[in-house]
Write a structure and sequence with these properties.
Aminopeptidase; 10 helices; 31% strand; 2 domains; 33% helix; alpha+beta
């Protein structure tokens, strides 16, 4: 059976969503995308170029979607790279689709002068890893998904002296509050692996789109010293994930403290504060991701009861 490939159009968003959701079913922590959010984060993104993507059909059935978006923000910050993605419905894997899709993606990136292609697999083995290795990608870095389960009581850790916490639901935050958060986030993560500063507009878009769908409850904590913000925590309850997985889980997405204010226990209390809020909301499991080589962060998370649940791999291919 032949597969026909072409560049996607906005009329293909429903098919793209179907492929991505089907392809992710084998992942332990998968969550279905809605058609509207796929539209928002593809054709609604200024960096999205349909020429960098292919969608494949077998007898009119959508079976594959993948490619790469080149981030102008990353290029502007000195990262001559691009992340690639590939989704193939399980019954059509290992039938030549992967090679065709990746060759097209890599040729697209070369034509744009991109120096390397990157792929993250959330698990340490499996179809995604096999394909990455088959096309010559190198295992360059690992990451952990950590979980804290069955927290029975709030931690109620005291805020370090001289600091105050300010809590905001993301859908109620102002543009200036998001700008302040992003400034601290970018400063805190400046020396982290593969990090590139995030534009404020991206988080404003998250606020506006998530508020519209109601699929997530997102919260910010700003740690202040006087009038200055010195630390942040960004965390969420994804209702769609919990419904799909029959779970009561919360996710800590970002935890950062400006360098001059580290080693004061601020990061520990920020995370504990988020965990207490999850507990108040009826959650019994908390997840977060961490670079496997970030020993200080690992030590902190282990001390609060987190354990490594899953290991993922960053792959890279020089073009």
């Amino acid at each position: 059976m032949n597969v026909e490939y072409r560049h996607p159009t906005e009329d293909d968003v429903e098919a793209m969503t179907e492929i991505m959701n089907s392809s992710a079913k084998d992942l332990k922590h998968s969550v279905d995308n809605s058609v509207e959010l796929v539209r928002v984060w593809t054709f609604g993104e200024k960096d999205y170029d349909a020429d960098g993507y292919l969608i494949g059909f077998a007898d009119s059935k959508p079976v594959a979607y993948g490619g790469s978006t080149i981030s102008k923000s990353r290029l502007d910050n000195g990262h001559n790279d691009a992340s690639v993605s590939l989704a193939v419905v399980p019954e059509w894997r290992y039938k030549g689709i992967e090679g065709h899709m990746f060759n097209a993606t890599l040729n697209f990136l070369r034509s744009r002068g991109i120096g390397s292609a990157k792929l993250f697999t959330p698990e340490a083995s499996g179809w995604r890893n096999n394909i990455a290795l088959e096309i010559g990608m190198k295992d360059v870095r690992h990451g952990y998904l950590m979980a804290c389960k069955n927290q029975e009581h709030p931690l109620n850790l005291p805020t370090p002296e001289g600091f105050q916490f300010h809590h905001i639901m993301l859908d109620e935050s102002s543009d200036s509050e998001i700008s302040d958060f992003v400034d601290v986030f970018n400063d805190s993560f400046a020396n982290h692996y593969n990090f590139s500063p995030s534009p404020v507009e991206r988080f404003i878009k998250v606020r506006d789109e998530e508020a519209k769908t109601g699929e997530c409850k997102l919260r910010l904590t700003l740690a202040k010293k006087g009038d200055g913000i010195v630390g942040v925590c960004f965390y969420e309850i994804n209702h769609q994930y919990n419904k799909q997985n029959n779970s009561k889980a919360g996710w800590a997405n970002i935890l950062g403290v400006r360098k001059p204010f580290r080693s004061l226990g601020l990061g520990r209390v920020l995370l504990a504060d988020a965990m207490d809020w999850f507990h108040e909301q009826g959650m019994d499991t908390m997840y977060l991701g961490v670079d496997a080589e970030n020993r200080n962060a690992l030590k902190l998370y282990l001390s609060l009861g987190y354990v490594v649940e899953q290991e993922g791999i960053h792959y890279e291919l020089a073009l």
